[in-house]
């Protein structure tokens, strides 16, 4: 049905001015020439393409390049942080109590979730109804990281169960994935920021030992950062999503792909196609790492 991506190399790299005003080099990206699946409108964000169509491989020709092959082997392992962001985010991560981080680093799942639920390490605990540890397959190949719980998540204790979560589910379905099956979902911060504000760098840093332990326990093949705060949590660097799409970053040995946050996509429907490209890119990477043709 023409839903699968056909990748063509765009000629040469480019420089783009990111939304934060920082000029960053953009690598040559594979450019999809097929249309993205319908991820739905804001009113009805659930529609996703039939899996067979979304997953069917594109016919090959000498101009077509599978996405993962464009970037592998993984290079440029650490994103180049902007000077100010690097100073603020890494300084704050270093300020996190090392004894607490060490204790969390040794926890099993039950201890970890109990500790998250009882956490009072930052101001976010003051206004939360409950902490929201994470959900899904603890042996998943895919791990998606969002920003922080919103109102519905705070009520239900599960990440991405509101409108953004419905869109995330549709995005997962578009690449043949399903919440809870080979997918683990977590957030950069485990407690709802008041009025759904963006979590601050020090809150992300304080919560980071929990995210780090979740990643260690899941050991995913790929991490997908949904939005800038998630990328900050995973990479300890401020990046522009627009300028970082199509690149493979690394967190230790684990590749990290960045894309837009579903809540942003609900407000910017035109970028849904880009998010789908990013997920196809990540899927190519996972297949490559799994040694699948
Ligand atoms: N947005 C997030 O980043 N995480 C959630 O769990 C819900 C909305």
UniProtKB/TrEMBL annotation:
<feature type="domain" description="Uracil-DNA glycosylase-like">
    <location>
        <begin position="133"/>
        <end position="280"/>
    </location>
</feature>
<keyword id="KW-0234">DNA repair</keyword>
<feature type="region of interest" description="Disordered">
    <location>
        <begin position="28"/>
        <end position="99"/>
    </location>
</feature>
<keyword id="KW-0378">Hydrolase</keyword>
<dbReference type="InterPro" id="IPR005273">
    <property type="entry name" value="Ura-DNA_glyco_family4"/>
</dbReference>
<keyword id="KW-0227">DNA damage</keyword>
<feature type="compositionally biased region" description="Low complexity">
    <location>
        <begin position="68"/>
        <end position="90"/>
    </location>
</feature>
<protein>
    <recommendedName>
        <fullName>Type-4 uracil-DNA glycosylase</fullName>
        <ecNumber>3.2.2.27</ecNumber>
    </recommendedName>
</protein>
<keyword id="KW-0408">Iron</keyword>
<dbReference type="InterPro" id="IPR005122">
    <property type="entry name" value="Uracil-DNA_glycosylase-like"/>
</dbReference>
<keyword id="KW-0004">4Fe-4S</keyword>
<dbReference type="InterPro" id="IPR036895">
    <property type="entry name" value="Uracil-DNA_glycosylase-like_sf"/>
</dbReference>
<dbReference type="Pfam" id="PF03167">
    <property type="entry name" value="UDG"/>
</dbReference>
<keyword id="KW-0411">Iron-sulfur</keyword>
<comment type="similarity">
    <text>Belongs to the uracil-DNA glycosylase (UDG) superfamily. Type 4 (UDGa) family.</text>
</comment>
<dbReference type="InterPro" id="IPR051536">
    <property type="entry name" value="UDG_Type-4/5"/>
</dbReference>
<keyword id="KW-0479">Metal-binding</keyword>
<feature type="compositionally biased region" description="Low complexity">
    <location>
        <begin position="34"/>
        <end position="60"/>
    </location>
</feature>
